[in-house]
Amino acid sequence: MKYLIFFILTFIISCDYKSDEEIETERHRQLVKDMNRFAYKEVDKNNLISFEFDYRDKQQKIENKNIIPSSEFVSVYSIYYNLLEEMVFCESFKKESEPKIKSGTWYQFYEGMRIKCLIINDIYQNNKDVFLDFLNLKKGKYYFFSLIWDYSGEITEGTEIKPVGLFSSKISCKKHSDKFLRSGKYLVGRCKEYFEEFSKLERYEKTNQEILNEKKKNVSKTEDDLNLKASKQELNNRVKNKKSVMEILNEIEVEK
């Protein structure tokens, strides 16, 4: 009997056990689900993801140069993703009660989160139209700034710096970055213009082979294509005249 109990307990424990990878996957899945609740219905995230690729291809053709992607370049999708992620965190933060003791590490963290969530919510409420205009390229310039979310007093190699919001004017961008700066709890980067940052990406001249390959792609109809089309048309005409396949083949052989 005791062996049976031992077996059952072992089975239950083994079923409940999850690896770190499984836990992280589950956590990320839940985060994405929560983020979807805050996603702007009018903004297609797939368009945001593909924007940089499409825009880079377009610029490469205009400049006739190759543009090298960079991990340091801030994508518009990462700005959108960070905004939704922070909205999820701020929603959870609402459940926290204000510390009774107005000092110490927990109070400092609480105050930092309170200030951040007020500003993030303001950005979120005004960002939908900006993202839509950006995708439609209705304006010439769009700005963002970067922020160290959890500043502990020093910047180390692991310090996380994230872009914040998308703004249609430098004035609007600076207004929100100044709110973080005045709080004294965050380090804030200067407002940067998205397309100016894109223009700083490294370029190099295309090789002759790359230029030749592009020309081949742009040729809509080659001589062979035209000949093939004419041959097919001739064959269709003969079939319409109700000639048998053998008669058609014989005619082709005689023509040769």
What would your notes on this structure say?
It contains ten helices and five strands. By secondary structure, it is mostly helical. The N and C termini lie far apart (about 95 Å).
Describe the structure concisely.
The chain is mostly helical and 256 residues long.
The largest β sheet comes out as:
3 strands, antiparallel
Count of alpha and pi helical runs: 10
**Share of helix, binned:** 55-70%
Rounded to the nearest angstrom, the radius of gyration is: 30 Å
Estimate the mean pLDDT confidence: 75
What is the distance, rounded to the nearest whole angstrom, between the alpha carbons of the first and last residues?
Answer: 93 Å
Bin the strand percentage. Answer: 5-15%
Q: What gross morphology would you assign?
A: globular
The helix/strand class is mainly alpha
Low-confidence stretches: 1-9, 252-256
Strand segment tally: 5
Major β-sheet strand ordering? 3-2-4
| H/E element order | HHHEHHEEHEHEHHH
Give the secondary structure arrangement, pairings included.
Layout: H1 2-16, H2 20-38, H3 45-63, E1 65-67, H4 76-93, H5 104-135, E2 143-148, E3 161-167, H6 170-183, E4 192-193, H7 194-199, E5 203-205, H8 208-218, H9 223-240, H10 245-255
Helix pairs in contact: 2-4, 4-5, 5-6
Keywords:
three-stranded antiparallel sheet; mainly alpha; two-stranded antiparallel sheet; 256 residues
